[in-house]
Amino acid sequence: METRERGGGGIAVTAAEIDRQRLMEDRLRRQAWDATEVERILRYGAFVGTAIECYPVLDRAMEKARIHITAMEQAGRSVHNGTVILADRLERSKGRFDRTWHAPSGGLWGCLLHVNTLLPQSRNLISLAVGVACCEAVREMGIAAELRWVNDVLVGDRKVAGFLIESFFSPRYREEYNLIGFGINVNNHQFPHELRDTALSLAQALGRPLDINSFARLFLAKLSFAVGLLYYEEERRLHGGDDWDDGGHRLLQLWRGLSTTVGRRVVFGFDVLQAPRYQATVGGITGSGGLVMVLDDGHEKTEYSGEIRYI
Amino acid sequence: MSNEIDFDEILSKYRSDPFDYVEVCATHTGVVHFRVGEGDAVEAPSGEWQQIPGTALYQITRERNPKLVAARTNGVVSGIRSELEGQFVEAGEKLITIRHPLKKKEIIENILKEVLYLFRAPERAKYYFALDVQSRIEKKGVRAVTIEAGEEVLTMSLMKRDTPIYYTGEGGVIHSVYFTPGVSVNQGEPLLGICAPEKLPLIQKIITRVKADWNSEQGLAA
Fold first, then answer.
1. Residues near A133 by Cβ (< 8 Å), separated by ≥ 6?
2. N vs C: which end of chain B shows fewer Cβ within 10 Å?
Protein backbone atom coordinates (compact mmCIF):
# COMPACT_ATOMS: atom_id res chain seq x y z
CA MET A 1 0.00 0.00 0.00
CA GLU A 2 1.62 3.23 -1.15
CA THR A 3 1.43 6.64 0.41
CA ARG A 4 0.04 9.27 -1.86
CA GLU A 5 1.93 12.32 -3.03
CA ARG A 6 0.45 15.75 -2.60
CA GLY A 7 -1.82 17.16 -5.27
CA GLY A 8 -3.56 13.93 -6.07
CA GLY A 9 -6.79 14.83 -4.31
CA GLY A 10 -7.91 13.44 -0.98
CA ILE A 11 -6.13 13.92 2.31
CA ALA A 12 -2.63 15.42 2.07
CA VAL A 13 -1.07 16.99 5.14
CA THR A 14 2.61 17.46 5.96
CA ALA A 15 4.57 17.77 9.18
CA ALA A 16 5.72 21.27 8.15
CA GLU A 17 2.10 22.36 7.77
CA ILE A 18 1.32 21.10 11.25
CA ASP A 19 4.26 23.12 12.56
CA ARG A 20 2.85 26.26 10.94
CA GLN A 21 -0.60 25.51 12.34
CA ARG A 22 0.96 25.17 15.80
CA LEU A 23 2.27 28.72 15.47
CA MET A 24 -1.27 29.89 14.83
CA GLU A 25 -2.44 27.84 17.80
CA ASP A 26 0.26 29.51 19.88
CA ARG A 27 -1.01 32.98 18.95
CA LEU A 28 -4.62 32.01 19.62
CA ARG A 29 -3.93 30.50 23.03
CA ARG A 30 -1.91 33.50 24.17
CA GLN A 31 -5.13 35.53 24.12
CA ALA A 32 -6.34 33.63 27.18
CA TRP A 33 -3.28 31.84 28.59
CA ASP A 34 0.10 32.90 29.86
CA ALA A 35 2.50 33.07 26.88
CA THR A 36 5.28 31.13 28.61
CA GLU A 37 2.90 28.36 29.54
CA VAL A 38 1.52 28.15 26.00
CA GLU A 39 5.02 27.89 24.61
CA ARG A 40 5.92 25.08 27.01
CA ILE A 41 2.67 23.21 26.45
CA LEU A 42 3.10 23.33 22.68
CA ARG A 43 6.72 22.28 23.03
CA TYR A 44 5.57 19.24 24.99
CA GLY A 45 2.97 18.48 22.32
CA ALA A 46 5.23 19.17 19.35
CA PHE A 47 5.75 15.47 18.71
CA VAL A 48 2.22 15.22 17.29
CA GLY A 49 2.55 15.02 13.52
CA THR A 50 6.36 14.83 13.32
CA ALA A 51 5.77 12.26 10.58
CA ILE A 52 2.58 11.99 8.56
CA GLU A 53 1.60 9.23 6.18
CA CYS A 54 -1.39 9.73 3.88
CA TYR A 55 -3.07 6.85 2.07
CA PRO A 56 -5.94 6.73 -0.40
CA VAL A 57 -7.39 3.68 1.31
CA LEU A 58 -6.60 1.45 4.28
CA ASP A 59 -8.39 -1.41 5.96
CA ARG A 60 -7.97 0.12 9.39
CA ALA A 61 -5.69 2.96 10.47
CA MET A 62 -5.02 1.29 13.85
CA GLU A 63 -3.96 -1.90 12.14
CA LYS A 64 -1.70 0.07 9.81
CA ALA A 65 -0.11 1.64 12.89
CA ARG A 66 0.63 -1.78 14.38
CA ILE A 67 2.12 -2.98 11.09
CA HIS A 68 4.20 0.19 10.85
CA ILE A 69 5.62 -0.20 14.37
CA THR A 70 6.38 -3.89 13.80
CA ALA A 71 8.06 -3.24 10.44
CA MET A 72 10.20 -0.43 11.83
CA GLU A 73 11.39 -2.64 14.69
CA GLN A 74 12.18 -5.49 12.35
CA ALA A 75 14.21 -3.12 10.20
CA GLY A 76 16.13 -1.98 13.29
CA ARG A 77 14.73 1.53 13.04
CA SER A 78 12.93 3.77 15.53
CA VAL A 79 9.34 4.75 15.20
CA HIS A 80 8.72 8.50 15.13
CA ASN A 81 6.73 9.27 18.24
CA GLY A 82 3.74 11.27 17.02
CA THR A 83 3.49 9.65 13.61
CA VAL A 84 0.04 10.27 12.14
CA ILE A 85 -1.51 7.86 9.68
CA LEU A 86 -4.32 9.29 7.56
CA ALA A 87 -6.52 7.72 4.91
CA ASP A 88 -9.17 8.99 2.52
CA ARG A 89 -11.31 6.04 3.44
CA LEU A 90 -11.18 2.91 5.55
CA GLU A 91 -12.63 -0.33 4.34
CA ARG A 92 -12.79 -2.33 7.56
CA SER A 93 -13.04 0.28 10.26
CA LYS A 94 -14.77 -0.50 13.48
CA GLY A 95 -15.97 1.24 16.58
CA ARG A 96 -15.82 -0.04 20.13
CA PHE A 97 -17.11 -3.52 20.93
CA ASP A 98 -18.49 -4.95 17.69
CA ARG A 99 -19.89 -1.69 16.36
CA THR A 100 -19.29 -0.74 12.76
CA TRP A 101 -17.75 2.60 11.90
CA HIS A 102 -18.62 3.93 8.48
CA ALA A 103 -15.51 5.59 6.99
CA PRO A 104 -16.07 6.62 3.36
CA SER A 105 -14.26 9.35 1.43
CA GLY A 106 -14.84 12.83 2.78
CA GLY A 107 -14.15 12.07 6.43
CA LEU A 108 -10.96 12.49 8.46
CA TRP A 109 -9.86 9.00 9.39
CA GLY A 110 -6.58 8.25 11.07
CA CYS A 111 -4.42 7.23 13.97
CA LEU A 112 -1.78 8.93 16.11
CA LEU A 113 1.09 6.78 17.38
CA HIS A 114 2.09 7.90 20.84
CA VAL A 115 4.95 6.24 22.70
CA ASN A 116 3.54 5.99 26.19
CA THR A 117 5.69 8.21 28.39
CA LEU A 118 2.86 9.55 30.53
CA LEU A 119 2.23 8.67 34.15
CA PRO A 120 -0.91 6.55 34.67
CA GLN A 121 -2.80 9.54 36.08
CA SER A 122 -2.15 11.55 32.90
CA ARG A 123 -2.66 8.62 30.64
CA ASN A 124 -6.20 8.18 31.87
CA LEU A 125 -6.95 11.63 30.49
CA ILE A 126 -5.86 10.93 26.90
CA SER A 127 -9.44 10.09 25.95
CA LEU A 128 -10.60 13.43 27.25
CA ALA A 129 -7.72 15.23 25.51
CA VAL A 130 -8.58 13.92 22.06
CA GLY A 131 -12.23 14.88 22.57
CA VAL A 132 -11.26 18.38 23.67
CA ALA A 133 -9.01 18.81 20.61
CA CYS A 134 -11.72 17.73 18.21
CA CYS A 135 -14.47 19.75 19.84
CA GLU A 136 -12.31 22.89 19.84
CA ALA A 137 -11.45 22.38 16.17
CA VAL A 138 -15.12 21.90 15.26
CA ARG A 139 -16.11 25.01 17.19
CA GLU A 140 -13.41 26.98 15.41
CA MET A 141 -15.18 26.11 12.17
CA GLY A 142 -18.23 27.95 13.52
CA ILE A 143 -20.18 24.85 14.56
CA ALA A 144 -21.76 24.66 18.01
CA ALA A 145 -20.28 21.36 19.12
CA GLU A 146 -20.19 19.98 22.63
CA LEU A 147 -18.65 17.05 24.46
CA ARG A 148 -20.47 14.13 26.00
CA TRP A 149 -18.41 12.06 28.48
CA VAL A 150 -15.97 10.54 27.71
CA ASN A 151 -15.21 12.14 24.36
CA ASP A 152 -18.20 12.01 22.05
CA VAL A 153 -18.35 15.18 19.97
CA LEU A 154 -21.97 16.11 19.39
CA VAL A 155 -23.68 18.71 17.26
CA GLY A 156 -27.19 18.89 18.60
CA ASP A 157 -27.89 15.30 19.55
CA ARG A 158 -25.85 13.82 16.71
CA LYS A 159 -22.34 12.47 16.83
CA VAL A 160 -19.78 13.97 14.45
CA ALA A 161 -16.69 12.16 15.68
CA GLY A 162 -15.60 9.00 17.43
CA PHE A 163 -12.32 7.91 18.98
CA LEU A 164 -10.80 4.59 19.81
CA ILE A 165 -7.70 4.36 21.99
CA GLU A 166 -5.83 1.11 22.25
CA SER A 167 -2.57 0.21 23.90
CA PHE A 168 -0.10 -1.72 21.81
CA PHE A 169 3.08 -3.44 22.93
CA SER A 170 5.60 -3.64 20.13
CA PRO A 171 6.52 -7.26 19.42
CA ARG A 172 10.28 -6.98 19.59
CA TYR A 173 11.11 -4.45 22.29
CA ARG A 174 7.76 -4.45 24.13
CA GLU A 175 7.61 -0.68 23.87
CA GLU A 176 4.17 0.53 24.86
CA TYR A 177 2.23 2.73 22.46
CA ASN A 178 -1.09 4.48 22.73
CA LEU A 179 -2.77 4.21 19.36
CA ILE A 180 -5.22 7.07 19.22
CA GLY A 181 -7.70 6.37 16.46
CA PHE A 182 -9.94 9.16 15.25
CA GLY A 183 -12.85 9.33 12.87
CA ILE A 184 -14.41 12.70 12.12
CA ASN A 185 -17.33 13.12 9.74
CA VAL A 186 -16.15 16.14 7.77
CA ASN A 187 -17.60 16.11 4.25
CA ASN A 188 -19.11 12.64 4.09
CA HIS A 189 -22.86 12.90 4.22
CA GLN A 190 -24.28 9.44 3.63
CA PHE A 191 -24.57 7.13 6.59
CA PRO A 192 -25.73 3.55 6.90
CA HIS A 193 -29.35 3.12 7.91
CA GLU A 194 -28.56 2.38 11.56
CA LEU A 195 -26.59 5.62 11.94
CA ARG A 196 -28.90 7.93 10.00
CA ASP A 197 -30.58 9.37 13.07
CA THR A 198 -27.50 9.64 15.25
CA ALA A 199 -24.63 10.72 12.96
CA LEU A 200 -23.89 14.02 11.27
CA SER A 201 -21.04 15.49 9.26
CA LEU A 202 -19.53 18.92 9.74
CA ALA A 203 -20.53 19.82 6.17
CA GLN A 204 -24.13 18.98 7.00
CA ALA A 205 -23.94 21.07 10.16
CA LEU A 206 -22.37 23.99 8.33
CA GLY A 207 -24.37 23.72 5.11
CA ARG A 208 -21.25 23.67 2.96
CA PRO A 209 -18.19 21.46 2.45
CA LEU A 210 -14.99 22.13 4.37
CA ASP A 211 -11.39 22.00 3.21
CA ILE A 212 -10.53 18.67 4.79
CA ASN A 213 -6.77 19.33 4.80
CA SER A 214 -7.26 22.61 6.65
CA PHE A 215 -9.46 20.86 9.16
CA ALA A 216 -6.93 18.05 9.59
CA ARG A 217 -4.18 20.59 10.30
CA LEU A 218 -6.39 22.41 12.77
CA PHE A 219 -7.37 19.22 14.59
CA LEU A 220 -3.78 17.99 14.84
CA ALA A 221 -2.56 21.35 16.15
CA LYS A 222 -5.33 21.30 18.77
CA LEU A 223 -4.32 17.73 19.62
CA SER A 224 -0.72 18.93 20.05
CA PHE A 225 -1.92 21.42 22.62
CA ALA A 226 -4.23 19.02 24.44
CA VAL A 227 -1.64 16.24 24.70
CA GLY A 228 1.09 18.78 25.53
CA LEU A 229 -1.13 19.97 28.35
CA LEU A 230 -1.13 16.46 29.84
CA TYR A 231 2.66 16.56 30.03
CA TYR A 232 2.73 20.14 31.29
CA GLU A 233 0.23 19.46 34.08
CA GLU A 234 2.12 16.29 34.97
CA GLU A 235 5.30 18.31 35.35
CA ARG A 236 3.52 20.89 37.53
CA ARG A 237 2.25 18.18 39.85
CA LEU A 238 5.62 16.44 40.04
CA HIS A 239 7.15 19.75 41.11
CA GLY A 240 4.79 20.26 44.01
CA GLY A 241 1.91 21.91 42.22
CA ASP A 242 -1.70 20.86 42.59
CA ASP A 243 -2.81 17.44 43.76
CA TRP A 244 -3.94 14.94 41.09
CA ASP A 245 -7.40 14.72 42.61
CA ASP A 246 -8.08 18.39 43.12
CA GLY A 247 -9.97 18.91 39.87
CA GLY A 248 -7.73 21.83 38.91
CA HIS A 249 -6.14 20.05 35.96
CA ARG A 250 -6.45 22.45 33.06
CA LEU A 251 -7.37 19.80 30.56
CA LEU A 252 -10.37 19.03 32.77
CA GLN A 253 -11.16 22.74 32.89
CA LEU A 254 -11.14 22.82 29.09
CA TRP A 255 -13.30 19.69 28.98
CA ARG A 256 -15.83 21.16 31.42
CA GLY A 257 -16.02 24.31 29.31
CA LEU A 258 -16.92 22.29 26.21
CA SER A 259 -19.28 19.78 27.78
CA THR A 260 -22.88 19.90 28.83
CA THR A 261 -22.76 16.47 30.47
CA VAL A 262 -22.70 17.70 34.06
CA GLY A 263 -26.23 18.12 35.36
CA ARG A 264 -27.77 15.95 32.63
CA ARG A 265 -30.02 12.96 33.19
CA VAL A 266 -28.33 9.96 31.59
CA VAL A 267 -28.44 6.24 31.13
CA PHE A 268 -25.12 4.50 31.84
CA GLY A 269 -23.68 1.21 30.68
CA PHE A 270 -20.35 -0.35 29.82
CA ASP A 271 -21.88 -0.92 26.39
CA VAL A 272 -24.84 1.37 26.80
CA LEU A 273 -26.50 0.44 23.51
CA GLN A 274 -26.49 -3.30 24.15
CA ALA A 275 -26.66 -3.35 27.92
CA PRO A 276 -27.83 -0.15 29.62
CA ARG A 277 -27.38 -0.51 33.37
CA TYR A 278 -28.90 2.39 35.28
CA GLN A 279 -30.15 5.95 35.05
CA ALA A 280 -28.72 8.82 37.06
CA THR A 281 -28.00 12.53 37.03
CA VAL A 282 -24.40 13.56 36.38
CA GLY A 283 -23.06 15.36 39.43
CA GLY A 284 -19.61 16.22 38.12
CA ILE A 285 -16.29 14.94 36.87
CA THR A 286 -13.46 13.93 39.21
CA GLY A 287 -9.84 14.99 39.00
CA SER A 288 -9.05 11.74 37.22
CA GLY A 289 -11.83 12.14 34.68
CA GLY A 290 -14.35 9.84 36.37
CA LEU A 291 -18.02 10.62 36.00
CA VAL A 292 -19.84 11.23 39.28
CA MET A 293 -23.34 9.81 38.99
CA VAL A 294 -26.03 10.81 41.45
CA LEU A 295 -28.51 7.96 41.68
CA ASP A 296 -32.17 8.40 42.49
CA ASP A 297 -31.61 7.48 46.13
CA GLY A 298 -29.18 10.39 46.43
CA HIS A 299 -26.05 8.25 46.66
CA GLU A 300 -23.11 8.87 44.36
CA LYS A 301 -21.21 6.40 42.24
CA THR A 302 -18.16 7.28 40.16
CA GLU A 303 -17.64 5.54 36.84
CA TYR A 304 -14.25 5.39 35.14
CA SER A 305 -15.22 3.29 32.20
CA GLY A 306 -18.32 2.92 30.11
CA GLU A 307 -20.53 5.35 28.24
CA ILE A 308 -23.66 7.39 28.62
CA ARG A 309 -26.58 8.58 26.56
CA TYR A 310 -28.65 11.60 27.45
CA ILE A 311 -32.28 10.98 28.31
CA MET B 1 0.04 -26.65 43.57
CA SER B 2 0.19 -29.92 45.42
CA ASN B 3 -1.73 -32.98 44.29
CA GLU B 4 -2.19 -33.94 47.90
CA ILE B 5 -4.95 -32.05 49.66
CA ASP B 6 -5.60 -32.68 53.32
CA PHE B 7 -9.34 -32.10 53.26
CA ASP B 8 -9.75 -32.75 56.94
CA GLU B 9 -7.14 -30.18 57.82
CA ILE B 10 -8.65 -27.56 55.52
CA LEU B 11 -12.18 -28.14 56.74
CA SER B 12 -11.05 -28.23 60.31
CA LYS B 13 -9.44 -24.84 59.85
CA TYR B 14 -12.64 -23.30 58.54
CA ARG B 15 -14.74 -25.14 61.10
CA SER B 16 -12.76 -23.72 63.98
CA ASP B 17 -12.40 -20.23 62.58
CA PRO B 18 -14.88 -19.50 59.77
CA PHE B 19 -13.71 -15.94 59.27
CA ASP B 20 -11.53 -13.87 57.02
CA TYR B 21 -9.39 -11.25 58.69
CA VAL B 22 -9.37 -8.30 56.29
CA GLU B 23 -6.61 -5.78 56.81
CA VAL B 24 -7.52 -2.18 56.06
CA CYS B 25 -4.49 -0.05 55.19
CA ALA B 26 -3.93 3.67 54.61
CA THR B 27 -4.84 4.52 51.02
CA HIS B 28 -2.16 7.20 50.91
CA THR B 29 -0.05 9.29 53.25
CA GLY B 30 -1.88 11.64 55.62
CA VAL B 31 -3.22 12.25 59.10
CA VAL B 32 -5.65 9.58 60.28
CA HIS B 33 -8.80 9.93 62.38
CA PHE B 34 -10.73 6.74 63.09
CA ARG B 35 -14.51 6.61 62.74
CA VAL B 36 -14.97 3.17 64.32
CA GLY B 37 -13.80 1.38 67.46
CA GLU B 38 -12.91 -2.20 68.31
CA GLY B 39 -15.98 -4.43 68.36
CA ASP B 40 -18.03 -2.19 66.07
CA ALA B 41 -20.02 -3.91 63.34
CA VAL B 42 -19.33 -2.58 59.86
CA GLU B 43 -21.28 -2.95 56.63
CA ALA B 44 -20.09 -3.46 53.06
CA PRO B 45 -21.28 -1.27 50.15
CA SER B 46 -24.84 -2.07 49.18
CA GLY B 47 -27.60 -1.09 46.79
CA GLU B 48 -28.35 -2.47 43.36
CA TRP B 49 -25.31 -0.71 41.89
CA GLN B 50 -23.22 -0.79 45.08
CA GLN B 51 -23.85 2.93 45.28
CA ILE B 52 -24.44 3.00 49.04
CA PRO B 53 -20.99 3.21 50.64
CA GLY B 54 -19.96 0.87 53.41
CA THR B 55 -19.46 2.01 57.01
CA ALA B 56 -16.99 4.89 57.30
CA LEU B 57 -13.80 3.47 58.82
CA TYR B 58 -11.38 6.37 58.95
CA GLN B 59 -10.69 9.79 57.55
CA ILE B 60 -7.28 10.54 56.09
CA THR B 61 -6.21 14.11 55.39
CA ARG B 62 -3.44 15.04 52.99
CA GLU B 63 -2.71 18.68 52.21
CA ARG B 64 -6.02 19.87 53.67
CA ASN B 65 -7.85 17.37 51.49
CA PRO B 66 -9.81 14.99 53.75
CA LYS B 67 -10.92 11.64 52.37
CA LEU B 68 -13.35 9.30 54.07
CA VAL B 69 -12.53 5.63 53.60
CA ALA B 70 -15.39 3.15 53.90
CA ALA B 71 -15.53 -0.59 54.56
CA ARG B 72 -15.57 -2.86 51.51
CA THR B 73 -16.62 -5.89 53.50
CA ASN B 74 -19.02 -6.54 56.33
CA GLY B 75 -17.91 -7.83 59.72
CA VAL B 76 -16.70 -6.66 63.09
CA VAL B 77 -13.66 -4.50 63.86
CA SER B 78 -11.36 -6.98 65.54
CA GLY B 79 -8.28 -4.81 65.67
CA ILE B 80 -7.52 -1.11 65.45
CA ARG B 81 -4.24 0.79 65.65
CA SER B 82 -5.69 3.40 68.00
CA GLU B 83 -2.18 4.68 68.78
CA LEU B 84 -2.21 6.15 65.27
CA GLU B 85 -5.25 8.38 65.94
CA GLY B 86 -4.36 11.89 64.79
CA GLN B 87 -0.96 10.73 63.55
CA PHE B 88 0.66 11.02 60.12
CA VAL B 89 0.89 7.63 58.43
CA GLU B 90 2.51 6.33 55.29
CA ALA B 91 0.55 4.80 52.42
CA GLY B 92 -0.05 1.11 53.09
CA GLU B 93 0.20 1.36 56.88
CA LYS B 94 -2.11 -1.21 58.45
CA LEU B 95 -4.86 0.57 60.39
CA ILE B 96 -7.79 -1.74 61.06
CA THR B 97 -8.60 -5.45 60.94
CA ILE B 98 -12.14 -6.54 60.11
CA ARG B 99 -13.29 -10.04 61.03
CA HIS B 100 -15.53 -11.06 58.16
CA PRO B 101 -17.83 -14.10 58.61
CA LEU B 102 -17.43 -16.45 55.66
CA LYS B 103 -20.34 -17.88 53.72
CA LYS B 104 -20.24 -21.36 52.20
CA LYS B 105 -19.48 -20.01 48.74
CA GLU B 106 -16.68 -17.84 50.09
CA ILE B 107 -15.11 -20.81 51.87
CA ILE B 108 -15.09 -22.81 48.65
CA GLU B 109 -13.62 -19.84 46.79
CA ASN B 110 -10.98 -19.34 49.47
CA ILE B 111 -9.91 -22.97 49.26
CA LEU B 112 -9.80 -22.78 45.48
CA LYS B 113 -7.76 -19.61 45.64
CA GLU B 114 -5.17 -21.57 47.60
CA VAL B 115 -4.84 -24.17 44.90
CA LEU B 116 -5.41 -22.17 41.70
CA TYR B 117 -2.96 -19.77 40.08
CA LEU B 118 -4.60 -16.36 40.45
CA PHE B 119 -4.17 -13.82 37.67
CA ARG B 120 -4.80 -10.41 39.23
CA ALA B 121 -6.01 -7.04 37.95
CA PRO B 122 -3.10 -4.73 37.10
CA GLU B 123 -5.25 -1.62 37.57
CA ARG B 124 -8.68 -0.66 38.83
CA ALA B 125 -10.63 -0.97 35.60
CA LYS B 126 -13.25 -2.98 33.77
CA TYR B 127 -12.17 -6.17 32.08
CA TYR B 128 -13.47 -8.41 29.35
CA PHE B 129 -12.09 -11.40 27.51
CA ALA B 130 -10.03 -10.83 24.37
CA LEU B 131 -12.07 -11.62 21.26
CA ASP B 132 -10.21 -14.84 20.52
CA VAL B 133 -10.56 -16.17 24.07
CA GLN B 134 -14.21 -15.11 24.19
CA SER B 135 -14.87 -16.98 20.97
CA ARG B 136 -13.20 -20.13 22.34
CA ILE B 137 -15.20 -19.87 25.56
CA GLU B 138 -18.45 -19.56 23.60
CA LYS B 139 -17.58 -22.63 21.54
CA LYS B 140 -16.16 -24.91 24.22
CA GLY B 141 -17.11 -23.53 27.62
CA VAL B 142 -14.75 -21.72 29.94
CA ARG B 143 -13.24 -24.78 31.63
CA ALA B 144 -12.24 -26.24 28.29
CA VAL B 145 -10.20 -23.19 27.34
CA THR B 146 -6.46 -23.31 27.97
CA ILE B 147 -4.29 -20.21 28.11
CA GLU B 148 -0.55 -19.88 27.98
CA ALA B 149 1.94 -17.31 29.26
CA GLY B 150 2.26 -14.40 26.83
CA GLU B 151 -1.19 -14.92 25.39
CA GLU B 152 -3.51 -11.92 25.06
CA VAL B 153 -6.29 -13.05 27.33
CA LEU B 154 -8.16 -9.96 28.49
CA THR B 155 -8.82 -6.38 27.53
CA MET B 156 -8.65 -3.75 30.22
CA SER B 157 -10.95 -0.82 29.64
CA LEU B 158 -10.35 2.42 31.48
CA MET B 159 -11.53 5.87 30.41
CA LYS B 160 -12.39 4.56 26.94
CA ARG B 161 -8.85 3.28 26.44
CA ASP B 162 -8.52 -0.42 25.79
CA THR B 163 -5.32 -2.20 26.79
CA PRO B 164 -4.55 -5.82 25.92
CA ILE B 165 -3.63 -7.85 28.99
CA TYR B 166 -1.18 -10.67 28.43
CA TYR B 167 -1.30 -13.67 30.70
CA THR B 168 1.84 -14.06 32.78
CA GLY B 169 1.30 -17.14 34.93
CA GLU B 170 1.51 -20.90 34.52
CA GLY B 171 -0.35 -22.20 31.48
CA GLY B 172 -3.56 -23.99 32.20
CA VAL B 173 -7.31 -24.15 32.05
CA ILE B 174 -9.49 -21.19 33.01
CA HIS B 175 -11.23 -22.65 36.04
CA SER B 176 -12.65 -19.58 37.75
CA VAL B 177 -13.64 -16.18 36.37
CA TYR B 178 -13.78 -13.59 39.12
CA PHE B 179 -14.84 -10.56 37.10
CA THR B 180 -18.09 -9.54 35.45
CA PRO B 181 -17.79 -7.61 32.19
CA GLY B 182 -18.80 -4.01 32.77
CA VAL B 183 -18.16 -4.08 36.51
CA SER B 184 -15.02 -2.44 37.91
CA VAL B 185 -12.36 -4.61 39.47
CA ASN B 186 -9.96 -3.12 42.00
CA GLN B 187 -6.23 -3.33 41.45
CA GLY B 188 -4.80 -6.59 42.78
CA GLU B 189 -8.09 -8.44 42.91
CA PRO B 190 -8.14 -11.80 41.09
CA LEU B 191 -9.50 -11.86 37.56
CA LEU B 192 -8.94 -15.51 36.69
CA GLY B 193 -8.13 -18.73 38.53
CA ILE B 194 -6.01 -21.06 36.39
CA CYS B 195 -5.04 -24.67 36.90
CA ALA B 196 -3.19 -27.33 34.90
CA PRO B 197 -5.67 -29.52 32.93
CA GLU B 198 -4.59 -32.68 34.73
CA LYS B 199 -5.43 -31.05 38.04
CA LEU B 200 -9.04 -30.28 37.15
CA PRO B 201 -10.30 -33.53 38.74
CA LEU B 202 -8.54 -32.58 41.96
CA ILE B 203 -10.19 -29.16 41.93
CA GLN B 204 -13.56 -30.76 41.34
CA LYS B 205 -12.89 -33.14 44.19
CA ILE B 206 -12.24 -30.20 46.51
CA ILE B 207 -15.51 -28.52 45.55
CA THR B 208 -17.50 -31.74 45.88
CA ARG B 209 -15.94 -32.60 49.19
CA VAL B 210 -16.49 -29.15 50.68
CA LYS B 211 -20.06 -29.00 49.42
CA ALA B 212 -20.82 -32.47 50.76
CA ASP B 213 -19.22 -31.74 54.07
CA TRP B 214 -21.06 -28.47 54.30
CA ASN B 215 -24.43 -29.99 53.41
CA SER B 216 -24.00 -32.66 56.05
CA GLU B 217 -23.11 -30.08 58.63
CA GLN B 218 -25.48 -27.19 58.12
CA GLY B 219 -24.46 -24.19 60.10
CA LEU B 220 -20.76 -25.00 59.93
CA ALA B 221 -19.86 -21.37 59.50
CA ALA B 222 -23.11 -19.75 60.55
1. A219, A222, A223, A225, A226, A227
2. C
pLDDT at B217 over 60: no
Pick the CATH number of B104-216 from 3.10.20.30, 2.40.50.100, 3.20.20.70, 3.90.25.10: 2.40.50.100
pLDDT single digits (tens) B157-192:
999 899 999 999 889 999 999 999 888 898 899 999
Closest CB to A150 among B47, B63, B159: B159
List CB contacts of A195: < 8 A, sequence separation 6 or more.
A102
* A163 shares contact with chain B (CB less than 8 Å): yes
Fold annotation for A261-310: SH3 type barrels. (2.30.30)
How buried is B217 (Cβ within 10 angstroms: 0-12 exposed, 13-18 middle, 19+ buried)? exposed
Cis peptide before A150 (omega within 30 of 0): yes
pLDDT for residue B221 is more than 70: no
Give the containing element (helix H, strand E) for B162.
strand B161-166
Is B123 near chain A, with CB under 8 Å?
Answer: yes
- Decide if A304 and B184 are in contact by the 8 Å CB cutoff: yes
What's this model's pTM, rounded to 2 decimal places?
Answer: 0.89
Residue A99 pLDDT more than 90? no
